[in-house]
Amino acid sequence: GAGVSQTPSNKVTEKGKYVELRCDPISGHTALYWYRQSLGQGPEFLIYFQGTGAADDSGLPNDRFFAVRPEGSVSTLKIQRTERGDSAVYLCASSLMKRGDPSGANVLTFGAGSRLTVL
Amino acid sequence: AQTVTQSQPEMSVQEAETVTLSCTYDTSESDYYLFWYKQPPSRQMILVIRQEAYKQQNATENRFSVNFQKAAKSFSLKISDSQLGDAAMYFCAYRTLISNFGNEKLTFGTGTRLTIIP
User: Fold this and answer.
1) Please, are residues B101 and A50 in contact by the beta-carbon 8 Å criterion?
2) Beta strand A114-118 with B112-117: parallel, antiparallel or unpaired?
3) Which of A4-13, A85-94, A105-114 is predicted with the least confidence, judged by mean pLDDT?
4) A83-105, pLDDT tens digit by residue?
5) Which residue does chain B place closest to A46, by CA atoms?
6) CB-based contacts of B17, cutoff 8 Å, min separation 6
7) For residue range A45-71, what is the model confidence (pLDDT) as tens digits?
8) Cα separation of B105 and A78, whole Å?
9) Of A3, A7, A14, B48, which has the fewest Cβ atoms less than 10 A away?
10) B32 to chain A: closest CA residue
11) Cβ of B5 under 8 Å from any chain A Cβ?
12) Measured between CA atoms, how close is A27 to chain B, in angstroms?
């Protein structure tokens, strides 16, 4: 697509429920990132995919959070047993950075995010 | 670990005037990238300007320019001829130069909310 698409735009759920957030990156972008932006804060890195594999998941806060990218394009962030502290905007970004090509600073293109509210 | 600090939670400027947003960072690396991103109410982060630390010349993009002081670890954004469309949250961000497997993860500051006064 022309940009990074994220769905749903807004999600309200109850504490303890399971949630899935979807990210559809720019076609051909091999790198995909998830960030979490809590109220009044800057985005915080969660996980990075290069192709289908999670190359860096060091930002995932705990084992309730999991993300997949099975075909190297669309990614889903999954949150189990949601807690009120999970309420935030979840941002996805993609870039054309290729594995083994560390030169340059490719521009990350961000989506509009999914706002998650846990009641 | 790198940290990015934005000490101005809010700033305001008269339309057509100039405003400077501050950013400081902490790192032990000698080479890295710095960015300014704009986040309007639509939530989408938009790249405003970027600076390679190994370049001494300050980056400029039309009405946007930076004052990069490497020794002081300071990276301020100057917006000239402010326009109503510049109203947004502005985030300063850091990225290491040498990335593992192309990982370009960014470390963001807490942001500055810029209001443009007509």
Assistant:
1) yes
2) unpaired
3) A105-114
4) 999 999 999 999 886 555 444 55
5) B105
6) B81, B82
7) 999 998 898 989 999 999 999 999 999
8) 20
9) A14
10) A105
11) no
12) 18
